[in-house]
Amino acid sequence: MSAHVEVQQLQVVAETDTGGTITIVDDVSFAIDKGQVLALIGESGSGKTTIALSLMGYARGGCRLESGSIRIGATEVMDLSREQLGQLRGRRVSYVAQSAAASFNPSRTIMDQVTEVAAIHHLMPRQQAQKKAVELFRALALPEPDSIGSRYPHQVSGGQLQRLMAAMALISDPELVIFDEPTTALDVTTQIDVLRAFKKVVQERNITAVYVSHDLAVVAQMADQVVVLNKGAIREQGATAQVLDAPRDEYTRTLMAAARQPQRHGPELDSAVPPLLEVRNLLAGYGKIDRQGQPAVPILSDINVSLQRGATLGVIGESGSGKSTLARVIAGLLGPAAGQVLFDGEVLPPTLKGRSREQFRRIQIVFQNADTALNPAHTIARILGRPLTFYHGYRGAKKQQRIAELLELVQLPANLAGRPCSELSGGQKQRINLARALAAEPDLILCDEVTSALDTVVGAAILDLLTELRSKLNLSLVFISHDISTVRSMCDEILVLYSGQKVEYGRREHFVKPPFHPYTDLLIASVPELQQGWLERVAQRPALPEIGRSVKSLELCHFLERCPVRIDGRCNRLPPPRVQMQRGNEVLCHHGEQELRELEIPPLKCVAGGAG
Amino acid sequence: MNQLLLLLGKRIGAALLTLLLVSAVVFFISSLLPGDAAQAMLGQSATPEAVAALRSALGLDQPGHIRYVHWLGGLLTGDPGISLANDMPVAELVATRLPKSLVLAGITTLVAVPLALFLGIYAAMHSGSRTDRVLSTLTLCMVAVPEFLLATVAVLVFAVKLRWFSALSYAPPDASLGEFLSAYAMPVMTLCLVLVAQMARMTRAAVIDQLNQPYVEMAVLKGASLGRVVLRHALPNAIGPIANAVALGLSYLLGGVIIVEVIFNYPGVASLMVDAVTNRDMPLLQACAMIFCAAYLVLVLFADICAIVSNPKLRS
Amino acid sequence: MPFNLTRPPSATGLIGLALVLFWLFVALFGSLLAPHPVGEIVAYDVFEPTGGAYLLGTDYLGRDVLSRILHGARFTIGLALVAALLAGLTGTALGLFAAVSPRWLDETLSRFMDALISIPSKIFALVMIAAFDSSALLLLLIIGIAYTPGCYRIARSLAVNLNAMEFVLVARARGEGRLYLAWVEVLPNMIHPMLADFGLRFVYVVLLLSSLSFLGLGVQPPDADLGSLVRENISGLAEGAPAVLMPALAIATITIGVNLLIDSLRGKIRHAAGEV
């Protein structure tokens, strides 16, 4: 029997402004057997989403399915009329989008939208559709499956919305389901639950699926077959095990190398010298500060941290953990409600107002999104020239020469200087962003998610550059990230934040084996490994222990709501103590060292000595 | 629910506060005039004593803020003073004229709003098509045309050349339906052209904005027809912006009605206001100005309330 | 992807550009080209039709309509341009100022602007004219005040958004002063949208000025702008005199031209911005 889905020599073109066309997907062919999951992997611009959408006979604005064949069962999608496409979409082929938050209609209830497919295609009566939806909610491990449908999209979390969208896609029992980067926007600890739920329904219902992703490790868990794409063309395809274990193509090998974080060691540190940066008892947030000294929206509380000259401090946490706020407080962009920041032994004025130009110069900040961090109205020379003039008084030829040196330092050609930054690629912009910080000749650079917006390969190059610069210029870094493997690869010390609390703090080596804080444990255990079968091997988390009502007014552990080892009567009654482990890391937990050591931890692959 | 009421209460409170500020601006500008009302009423030949006597009779010798409070009190109790031009209570003058303006505005609204919504939504559904491009260019031109050009052309074509309607528009209270329609045809047509163009453009933009959202792509990928996508998905989210478009369009009507009433000699409150300007009849002018400003604020408030009520994030 | 600003302009955009250039030329040199002095009575026949000895006919006194329009256009365009510029510059400056100011100052200014914007521009103009008697200077002032709040709102919201951008945060963390932030980092990114806004506002200003003159409350005799020309010749309407229609058409072509031009430019700006 021939394959269930077959794509042959697909070509997709985009219309340009000048009326011409450019090919964005070229000569792509693959086939999927019934019940199989095929992954399309590639970086941005690889055409993976375009190909996935073409399976529904759909091309986004400005694009056109030019030629080739797309066969699903006995249907040739390219030959379908508009009405026939309408009958195909949603019923025979369905779609799970990357951002569930944006893909749900904000003004209609979830149930209304999940069952809409049934109404559009007259599949079943409303009551029956609702019953089926509830079954799917249950199968996807959603909380309160009977009532969650009556809520509006903004009333449920991102991870739940993503699963609700899967329910929406499955309600018509489609022949093919397209998952388009369905977990990319989620925190890693949420991602694992969503992946698990997806995997379960895919297996139970023997679903044929296309899984689009940039993340090899995720693909390794989900797919039977892999198609590696680059710039709209196929580089390699084959069974998942073959592609992961013995990639034939050079590009695939590059992707794999970037996904495995190598150790990026800095210089040896002399711990005898006083620290360069010290944060003491920091309390920070937004809004008015009340009489107890608490801001209206508290973000960070009781943060103590210090950083040696030449060292790198990793700050890790999920969205909302307060990691960016910490950088802003250090930079002076946000005044703390209480506590101090000491730099080189001196107390820094809390806000920008009191700081001297020299203090400004010595601390520089680099933001995540190079697109918004560079002024689109300025040329590169102007962007780099300003700190040179501002801090060092460079002008004329001296300034030009220094700009050229800076460009060389970040490995960019000197002739870029006259260009506006809008002409650069994402990676180049991030290098300029870095060069601007270096222009100040700072002692400390605050790096706020500097690689999160970049493709893995480009991001890895930026990390290598940072490591090189760090040794060359004896820089100290505060490296903020949501990705623990990057942090472990880059940093000497690691600070784990959860919802504004410093839950763990210690040297990098301590983040390989327990004892950990339960949140650190969850974080480390949730990072997918580049290995098939990992998802099955990770211990299914037990149900959370029952606890009574929490006392208000005290600073309880913020992880309480999600903690698998919480203790009724202790965690919900008393603020957690800060425990010093034998090997030196600090943990904010009611559990002692011995208890934490015995936490269920899956075998961890050591990050050190990965592929180089 | 309480939160919603609180939000609505806040909006209404803010509107009232703005209206108060507006009344102060209107009053103080119109009271700053170099020659004052007493002089204007008695003419240049009046003796200084007579002027002074009239001034104190009118309360003009009191300081500005006291006069403002008096005036505001009068306005709130339905007594905005005596017209200087014809010695009649302003309230009476306005009472005879206001209903006529409301009829004109009402008919125009009834014609223009459905037409504009239809055109705007239709153009958005077929954006990029030939019809859309033609509509776009037409409405773009129409919003830039002065009302008096439309009015004069209408008079020239329908009253002078075709002799369908009379150039003067006013239907007596006992007019038949035919008379009524023919009296209102030209002013309503003139007002509608610009109004429809403006509202249709904004409606189109609001709907297209929603059609570009990812949830609309999702609906398309569920197999929903274009009609379903627009009616069930895009429109519920475009209610706020569309209400805003309608409110802004109707507030334009407040300005347009001034020209139209003058051209067609229509005895409404706008032509009353123009007369007040020519006669420098300040009490009348102030009252008319406040009517227009209040109408504007009510429209904007209405749009805000629509936006709040249609948004489930604010509703819950 | 290789998109750029040099995509061919649309046909309507070209028409708009031609109209705008034509009227700019008329505003600058029109009075030199006028065949007759503006106030001279050249014919015994009033309301002559087009095409005779006088290209656009004669008006209610027997003056040359073409010459009157060439002069009137200068008034209309010149006054509107200066007034729109006044409102645009004031609004932009205040909006930018509010965005980088302390919160209380921003709030106070914004509240005040909200109140001003709640007075429809025509109503505001009528109140002002009743109080002070119409003059060119007063009209300038009226428009400056009436259109500043709208411009302020747009400028402020642009500036507030830009001010929260990371490149401004970087500059602040570098220790730059408010003036530098506003002038070098924020303002250059506001210019394109503010220019588009200026164009649209100019159209509204032309329409308001003409309306006021049409009501006899705008530019006062012996000066005459295009709106006044329509008013003074309104008695010729019954015979369809070009003296009524031509000035009105002149206004419409100015405003339509600007609208078409801005619309096609705005598409491009949006396009360019979308690619960043």
Helices and strands in order:
The complex is a heterotrimer of chains A (612), B (316) and C (276).
Chain A: E1 5-15, E2 21-32, E3 37-41, H1 48-54, E4 63-72, E5 75-76, H2 82-88, E6 93-96, H3 100-103, H4 110-114, H5 116-120, H6 126-139, H7 158-170, E7 176-180, H8 188-204, E8 209-213, H9 216-222, E9 225-230, E10 233-239, H10 240-245, H11 250-259, E11 277-289, E12 295-307, E13 312-316, H12 323-331, E14 338-343, E15 346-347, H13 357-362, E16 363-366, H14 370-373, H15 380-392, H16 396-409, H17 426-439, E17 444-448, H18 456-473, E18 476-481, H19 484-490, E19 493-498, E20 501-507, H20 518-526, H21 534-537, E21 578-580, E22 586-588, H22 593-597
Helix pairs in contact in A: 7-8, 8-20, 11-18, 15-16, 15-17, 16-17
Chain B: H1 2-30, H2 37-42, H3 48-58, H4 64-76, H5 90-125, H6 130-142, H7 147-161, H8 177-211, H9 214-221, H10 226-263, H11 269-279, H12 282-310, H13 312-315
Helix pairs in contact in B: 1-4, 1-12, 5-6, 5-8, 5-10, 5-12, 6-8, 7-8, 7-10, 8-10, 9-10, 10-11, 10-12, 11-12
Chain C: H1 11-33, H2 65-100, H3 103-117, H4 121-132, H5 136-163, H6 166-174, H7 178-186, H8 191-214, H9 226-232, H10 242-275
Helix pairs in contact in C: 1-2, 1-10, 2-3, 2-5, 2-8, 2-9, 2-10, 3-5, 4-5, 5-8, 6-7, 8-9, 8-10, 9-10
Mean pLDDT of chain B: 85
**Helix/strand order of chain B, N-terminal first:** HHHHHHHHHHHHH
- Strand proportion of chain A, as a percent range, falls in 15-25%
Rg from Cα of chain B:
24 Å
CATH superfamily of the largest domain in chain A: P-loop containing nucleotide triphosphate hydrolases
Number of strands of chain B: 0
Strand arrangement within the widest β-sheet of chain A reads 16-17-18-13-19-20-22-21
**Beta-strand residue fraction of chain B:** under 5%
Would you tell me which CATH topology of chain B applies? MetI-like fold
**Mean pLDDT score of chain A:** 89
- Runs of chain A in which pLDDT lies below 50 for 5 or more consecutive residues are 601-612
Range of helix content of chain A: 25-40%
Largest sheet of chain B: none
Structural class of chain B: mainly alpha
CATH class of the largest domain in chain A: Alpha Beta
Report the end-to-end length of chain A measured between terminal Cα atoms.
Answer: 43 Å
Number of helices of chain B: 13
